[in-house]
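anyone seen this seq b4? input:
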Amino acid sequence: MAMTQDLLAYYEQDREHDRLREGRGRLEFWRTQDVLRRMLPPAPARVLDVGGGTGVHAEWLAADGYDVELLDPVPLHVERARELTGIAARLGDARQLPVPDESVDVVLLLGPLYHLTQRADRVGALAEARRAVRPGGLVAAATISRHSAVHEGVRQGFYLDEEFRTAADGAAAGGIMRSPRSGFTAYMHEPEEIPPEFADAGFPEVKHYGLQGAFWLYGDVDDWLDDPERRTLMLDALRSMESVPSLLGVSGHILTLAHRER
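predicted toks r here
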């Protein structure tokens, strides 16, 4: 990631640890887990979790039997991840991975592309993932959808604030969100932008998965997630429409998968 002081200060508040572990963030977590469990090679394949935060995904991957190494540019995240069982964790940057060529089976970029606002850096991170993964290996990258700040702002009422509204409208128009609330800058993708970035990194074919659909915007989504029966219905519904092109952009996050050629 491009680790600015503002970004480091935000993540050093330890606000990332619970983001996907509670509340409506669980929808993104469970959907990411669902897609990856269908697409990952069998354990004990070697997984490099780049920008893996405090280990929210590394934890279940290790429990599933994968050989997991987590890289993150935030020292607090690395310290937290090292407390988890079966996970190696160290500082690292998505644009310069500290691993040999063709040394892992899977590279996960479930956060770094958010904070690489320059296209060249995003393509560079994807190219680094391609370098690190073995022929036939999998690269999975998450991106934030272009209009998600407007959607989230309306849902939570932030959009009534002129400063937030200006930032969210700017993100919808040009992709760069300079958040007055969180204090950092992020890049938000249109779905059609993603395949050319993968292609320039050496991946001519990709597959998109909308993680939350429109359900993340529903006021009662927590009630659905709390109820195992309703949660199963919601997750099944999302799986049935996860790659419908007309619905991708409404999802808060898109997961894009590609395999390195053999």
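The chain has a mean pLDDT of 95. Strands lie at 46-50, 67-72, 87-91, 104-109, 133-145, 176-178, 185-189, 207-210, 253-259. kinda curious what u guys think
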